[in-house]
Design a protein that fits this description.
By secondary structure, the chain is an all-alpha fold. The protein has helices spanning 3-33, 39-69. The protein starts with a helix and ends in a 5-residue tail after the last helix.
Length: 74
């Protein structure tokens, strides 16, 4: 698999993760509005955010690798 393939996959996963986090925030807001407990939902959000941070870290590493492999400017 080429670096460009890994990069595309990483970008897709980061974007998908952002959407999942946003949906979880909406779940928490709706539960809060309904007067329901949100502790478990907030714990899930914290795990999602940590996972997202790891995905972003991986994406940055791939972007750095891509830059390192580019030919120098003339």
């Amino acid at each position: 698999m080429k670096l460009s393939d890994h990069l595309a996959m990483a970008k897709h996963r980061v974007e998908k993760s952002r959407h999942i986090i946003e949906r979880q925030r909406e779940v928490i807001a709706k539960r809060r509005e309904a007067g329901q407990q949100t502790a478990v939902s907030e714990n899930v959000l914290a795990v999602l955010e940590r996972s997202h941070a790891a995905l972003e870290h991986g994406l940055r590493a791939l972007l750095n690798e891509e830059r390192a492999n580019e030919p120098p400017p003339r």
